[in-house]
Structures are given as C-alpha cells and as structure tokens.
Amino acid sequence: MADGLSTAASVIAVIQMATSLAGVGYKYLSGAKRAPECLRRLTAELKTLIEILTEIHIRAQDPESKLQGLDSSLQQCFADMIKLQDKLRPRNNSGLWGSIRTRLQWPFEESDIMDHLVRMERFKSTFTLAMGLNQQSLVKTTASHVGAINTHVQGIDGRMQTVDLNVQGVGMSVTKIREDIMDLRTVQNSNLREADIIQNKKQRTEILDWLYSEDFRTVHENISSRRKAQTGDWILKEKKFRNWIEMIDPHRILWGYGIPGAGKTFLSSRVIDYLECEAPAAGYGVAHIYFNFKDQSRQTPIKVLASLVKQLACKIPHLPRPIVEVYNKLHHEKRQPGFEDLYDYFLAIVGSGSFNRIIIVCDALDECDPSSQRLQLLPLFHRMGNDGASLFLTSREYPEDIQSSLNGKSTKLKLFANDEDIRNYIEQKINDNPRAKRLVREGGIKDMIISELTKCADGM
Q: Given CA atoms 326, 327, 329, 331 in this order, what sign does their dihedral have?
C-alpha cells in the first residue's frame, strides 16, 4: 500500500485484505472438526474490523471529514495483515486456500495469533477513537453509514450461509455473529447520540454567551449572603404581595417604594430567594436585576434586557427556534442582537410554554439614569407586563418619572425595615463584635440597647 494513496484508498485496501483473511477463517471453520479457539477469535476480530473500516471509508468521503490523518495506522494495519497472509500462503502450487483445505492444518502457534489479536485490537481502538472525535461527520452521515453497514452485513451474511452450521466445535454461530453486529450498531448509534448531545451543549453555551457575556449571579449571591436569616420574611405575608403573587391583583406590576436605608435591596433579595424556591413546583421563570448608580455601564436598557433573556433561557432545556436562527445569522457576521431582537427572544420564551409564569424582580430603579436608562426601561417593563410577565420593582418614591409611569398602573407597597428586622440586625452586629458582646453581657443591658437603637432607627 503506497504512502501516496488517499485515506479512502488505504481503507479499501485494508478492507479487501481483511475480507480475504476472514474468508480463509470461515472456510477453515467449515472444514475442520476441531477449529482452534484462536481462529474463532481472529475471525470475529476481522469481522468487527471490517465493520469499523467500512464506517471510516464512508465518512472519509465527506470533504469536511477529519479522518484523513489515519494513513499511518492504516499502513501499519495493512502490513500486519500481509504478515498474516504470508503465513497462510501455501508452500506448493496447489493454491493458497486449496492447500489449507487439503491439509486442514492451522499454521499458527497460539502465541503468534495472540500477538496478531493484540495488534488488531489496538488498530480497532485507534479507528474507533478517530470516529468518536469526528463529531461533525457523525452527525452529517448518519443515514448513509447505516445503509452502508446494512449492505456490508448482507454480504457477510451471504458468506456465512455457506458455512456448514452443523460442524461440531464451531463456537460462534451465525446468530451470535448477527448479535455482535447488532451490538456494534448499538454502540455506533450511541456514539452518534452522544456526539449530538455534546454539539448541542456547546452551541447552547455559545448562544447564551452571545446573548449576554457578563455574570448575573454574583451580585444576588453577595447580597443574599449578607442578609440575616428571616430578615424580610414579613413582606411575604403582606396582603398586597400575596394578592400579586396569587394573581388576584389586577395589576401585573407591584411597586415597592421606600425611603433611603429602608432595606429595599435586602427585601428584593428575599423576594428573589422565595420565588426561586417556589419556581420548580409553581413553574416560575424568575429573572432579576440589581441597579446601582456606581455601575451605569452594565444597566443600559439593551444590557438589562439581554441579561433578563439569558437568565430565563438558562432555565429551559431547549432554546426557542427564533433565538437559534438569528444567532446562526448574526454570529457569522460578528453582530450582536439589537434591542428588538432581544425582545423577540423574550416573547419566544414566553410563548414556548416552558414556564407557567414569568416573574421579573428589579431593585433600585431610582439608581438608573432618568434620561439614558429609565426613559426606555419604564416602557419596557410595562410592555413586558402587557405580554404576560409579572414584575416586582423597587425604588424611592419621589422620582417624578417613576411616579408618572407607575401611579395608577401598578400596586404600591410601602417598604420599610420593621422592628423585628432591625432587632435581628443589631443583635447580629453585637454578636459579631467580641468586645461589644462582652460589654453588653457584663452590663446586662443588651435588651435595652437593642430596644433603644430600634426606636432610633425609625424604619431605616
């Protein structure tokens, strides 16, 4: 087999040689009363190798195939079979196979044939690994390679029908061989499914990062970790909140307003944790945004919408088709989705049926720039509400644009730090400071300090 041959030609040469050697094995099995065990194993290994090489030959036809680098392994395999053929070659002029039929004598020591079996197993592993890595070819050639395998199986079945099935000592029956072939098909189909899964996961990650590349979890995790247990639980029992969460309230938007220092951000984090906990059973799709006047670059309207869409998309098993289609178009052009593209994705998620209800929590809306951000964000939130989402928004009460947008179109809920939350907070601070903890314990004035500070806090 010349070095200059293509992969396809090299594979054909090895298949032909393997088929010829397998034929010798079948003929010997049909004529020998006591066939060596190593012969049966060798014949079975040749048959499996033929199947694998046939698959490689089919996939190598694809111009995008990555199997062209197998020439060295194919040449080594071919050379090994040449050695095997030379040992079977007759020493007289009666012909290769005629000599074997006449003598019915297996020309190998068991150690020799075991060496061939080990090398053949190594070649099979190399070829199988190459096919596993060639994911794209696996996906594209599913239909064609199954047809090729069926054709080849029919040819092998035809040769097997010539074997005398009544010969004693033939351990591998036609039924067993067929079962082995079916096992091979099962493995190949499993490889195809696994390749599809890997490809889909990779594309899903790429699409989600294309939608929004920045982290959206860390801020909430930091705020939630600083909130003392049970702080803010009171809001979950508020009648207005219960009416909104149970969809008794006619308004889709619940506006929580409060003075600076009222703990609006901690209350928002408590609401988010509650919704995330309820989400699996209730079928909620929950997304959130924490606005911060120090981080204006991350809260532009398009980034806010992109983050919300990504958060929802992360929680569904299959991305809606419109997202995938636009990604395939824009990604190759190195373009990001526009604002209306992102809103179309939001609508696709709403209409996908993946969630019973979509709930969005946005904290500190007053910390957005009124002209460059809130001017577009407030209409966006109303638009989302009209399209079926529920929203919990928090802010200070006084910004005129927020009042004008939300008054009469939302339910207002006053937010404040209630006495129990303040007491818990003060007690936590005392316990976290060893010196303060020792002083109040020695003076027996812990309860008095907590009570007086709670009064002074006045809901902040």
A: positive
User: CA distances (Å), 283 to each of 101, 266, 277, 315, 386, in order?
Assistant: 73, 24, 11, 11, 20
345 and 311 in contact (C-beta within 8 Å)? no
Question: Residues 75-96: pLDDT tens digits?
Answer: 888 888 888 888 766 555 455 5
Q: Where are the domains of the chain?
A: 7-209, 216-416
Is the CATH code 3.40.50.720 the one for domain 216-416?
no
CA distance linking residue 288 with residue 220, whole number of Å: 9
- Residues 6+ positions from 225 with CB-CB distance below 8 Å: none
Mutual orientation of helices 339-351 and 375-386 as an angle, nearest 10°?
A: 20
The SS3 assignment for 414 reads strand
| Radius of gyration of the chain, Cα coordinates, nearest whole angstrom | 36
Residue with tokens 């694809």: 62
pTM, rounded to two decimals: 0.56
Residue 295: name the closest of 363, 232, 392, 361 by CA: 363
Structure tokens at 233: 């639980």
Residue 306 CA to residue 165 CA, distance in Å, equals 68
